[in-house]
Design a protein that fits this description.
The chain has about 450 residues and is mainly alpha-helical. The protein is built from 18 helices and no strands. Helix 1 crosses helix 14, helix 3 crosses helix 4 and helix 5 crosses helix 7. The longest helix is centred in the first third of the chain and has 40 residues. Bound molecules: tryptophan. It is a multi-pass membrane protein.
């Protein structure tokens, strides 16, 4: 497909908001703080930062570059970078889009819960306490209805395309997210008990440093930057040719990490504020109560102890989570949709309806068999598939894709890249260091 007829993000700001919108999601606002809280706070933070900048950032550049070079959906972009391995490239693309669809199928369920909690806090704010129990109590009907609502929202945005849908909503929602976030963190700091959480988050206790912690931090970094499932490849293909990829990727990684860090600044102190207010956050053995309880029980319990202000703070908190989730879920749906419009020549409308419908169906199956399937899908996709696919993409970029073509692609947005330090380190780094690091962490 000629690059001129292909849709693009209209501005670099728009691209950064969209890519950061994909990266910033439940992984940052929920996953990172809960993992940090249950893995010794500061130590997890440090290992996580190393993982992001030593491992995830170079891979983010690799994924974006191959996408922009291919100027097409993930399948075709991989084929462009691996001309001799067409079958392998197609297979990799297809596996990537299946995995990202599965990720969306569980992501939508969790996002649905958030919508339930948001509606609940909103109604409390207006003094409505009847009939709100259903919204926050685990049941198949609630899970199903809220999940479908969230999927419809995602499909609505993606149906409007790259510039009018994804970019427009990301540039609206992301700044709003930053503002809400800032307000809420500042508020929590004023509460009793917050300092205890802050200490746990910022003062390292090295006894927590274990191989398992490194594996968790790596998984978290990959999930958080949406790596390994063609999201960044697809978004990269909508990036203008004159954009500087290493710089843009660095900005995306910085925003993502900044939000994760701030989420920690908010959630860890909030836990201790909740404890101060008499909410149980640690089990009798001293371990942190599991992660769902933290967001869906502990924090709401804290909001409840704060009366009417609490209902407002709670509503803001959940709104924040929903925004973060939506800008991520649209990036996931875009991957199979871009493949369907370009490979199967479906119209965008039909592709969104068909694929969105299919993912909703899969998600419904997970909801109905929740106890058997939910954990399984999460583990299969995020713990195994994502790092493995990311590794394969890195191998293509490092070993197979022609070095001069990579250089040519990067040069378009950064003419003197060949002389800079980036080009001295990165190709070798992606070729050798990233795979070795990943395998080390895996086998640890
Ligand atoms: N990165 C997002 C988060 O932190 C979630 C996300 C979006 C994602 N696209 C993805 C995760 C692709 C894995 C793969 O919540």
């Amino acid at each position: 497909m000629a690059s001129s007829s292909r849709s693009q993000f209209s501005s670099r700001f728009g691209f950064i908001m969209a890519a950061a919108g994909s990266a910033v999601g439940l992984g940052n606002v929920w996953g990172f703080p809960t993992q940090a809280a249950s893995n010794g706070g500061a130590v997890f933070l440090i290992v996580y930062l190393c993982m992001v900048f030593l491992l995830a950032y170079p891979m983010l550049v690799a994924e974006m570059t191959i996408g922009r070079y291919g100027q097409s959906n993930a399948i075709r972009s991989f084929r462009a970078g691996w001309p001799k391995g067409q079958l392998g490239a197609i297979l990799l693309g297809v596996v990537g889009l299946v995995v990202v669809s599965l990720i969306l199928s569980f992501y939508a369920i969790v996002a649905g819960w958030l919508m339930g909690s948001f509606a609940d806090s909103g109604m409390n704010l207006f003094g409505i306490h009847d009939h709100t129990h259903w919204l926050t109590t685990f049941s198949t009907s609630r899970n199903l209805i809220l999940m479908v609502t969230f999927m419809l929202l995602t499909m609505y945005v993606v149906r409007n395309g790259v510039a009018d849908g994804i970019e427009k909503w990301s540039t609206r929602l992301m700044p709003l997210l930053f503002i809400l976030f800032f307000v809420l963190t500042a508020y929590i700091f004023t509460q009793d008990g917050a300092m205890e959480g802050l200490k746990m988050y910022l003062i390292p206790d090295l006894s927590h440093l274990t191989p398992e912690l490194c594996v968790s931090a790596m998984g978290q970094a990959f999930f958080s930057l949406s790596l390994g499932v063609c999201v960044m490849t697809t978004y990269g293909s909508y990036l203008k040719k004159d954009a500087n990829i290493p710089k843009t990727a660095a900005q995306v990684a910085l925003i993502d990490t900044g939000v994760a860090f701030t989420a920690g600044l908010m959630v860890l102190p909030a836990m201790f504020v909740a404890k101060q207010n008499g909410v149980q956050i640690f089990s009798d053995t001293g371990a942190l109560l599991n992660s769902d309880t933290l967001v869906f029980d502990v924090l709401p319990a804290m909001f409840n102890t704060m009366g009417i202000v609490g209902a407002l703070v709670g509503a803001i908190f959940f709104l924040l989570m929903i925004i973060a989730a939506l800008t991520s879920s649209i990036s996931m749906l875009e991957v199979p949709v871009s493949c369907a419009t370009e490979e199967l020549k479906l119209s965008r409308n039909k592709a969104v309806l068909f694929i969105g419908g299919l993912i909703t169906l899969v998600s419904a199956i997970v909801v109905v068999n929740f106890s058997d399937l939910f954990g399984l899908v999460v583990t299969f996709t995020t713990v195994y598939s994502q790092p493995i696919i990311a590794l394969l993409i890195t191998l293509i970029v490092g070993w197979i894709w022609n070095r001069n073509q990579i250089l040519g692609e990067l040069k378009q947005g950064c003419p003197d890249i060949e002389q800079g330090w980036f080009w001295k380190i990165w190709p070798w780094y992606v070729r050798v260091v990233c795979p070795i690091l990943m395998l080390l962490v895996f086998f640890a």
